[in-house]
Amino acid sequence: MSLSIRLTRGGAKKRPYYSIVVAEKSFPRDGRNLEKLGYYHPLDTASPLLVDADRAKYWLGVGAQPSERVARLLNTQGFNLPVHTLKPEREKAAKEAKEAKAKEEAAAAAAAKEAAKAAAAAAKAAEEEAKASAAAAKVEEAKPTEDAAALDAEAPAEKS
């Protein structure tokens, strides 16, 4: 006899409430159960969860396995249960999504690094160009004075 602690659904359409029960795994979801441990009302904000902690500890000690959702709910009440996902596809999909996100972040970091290198190279090129234009401007400044000196030397010769 394998036991599980799980939720049974009650309530109207789109107005669910759940009972936390101990039942054999072969029993239907909303069928026969061995004991009711509490309730969970997801739409009730005042007191959505009530669990008989002593009875839950007893059934866990006897070997009843909580469902994933019940384990999460019991953990909110102070139990320290491992939450095993029953859907390996979900775990696999989550792992793949995490790896894809890590690859995307690495690619973005590499692109940012490349952009920073390109910006540094452009700044260096602009600085070198500015130095070259400053040197050319100095040469241009020096050239008119030489021309002016040559004109001054020719000017007196023309007067005579």
Strand and helix map with partners:
Elements: E1 3-12, E2 15-24, E3 35-40, E4 49-51, H1 53-62, E5 65-66, H2 68-76, H3 88-159
Parallel strand pairs: 1-5
Antiparallel strand pairs: 1-2, 2-3, 3-4
What percent of residues are in strands? 15-25%
Strand order in the sheet with the most strands: 4-3-2-1-5
Total E-strand runs:
5
- How much is the radius of gyration in Å? 40 Å
What do you see in this structure?
There is one protein chain. This protein has a domain at 3-85: 2-Layer Sandwich (S16 Ribosomal Protein, Chain: A). 57% of the residues lie in helices and 19% in strands. It is built from three helices and five strands, in the order ββββαβαα. The longest helix is centred in the C-terminal third of the chain and has 72 residues, at 88-159.
Provide tags for this entry:
alpha+beta, 57% helix, 5-stranded mixed beta sheet, 3 helices, S16 Ribosomal Protein, Chain: A, rod-shaped, 160 residues
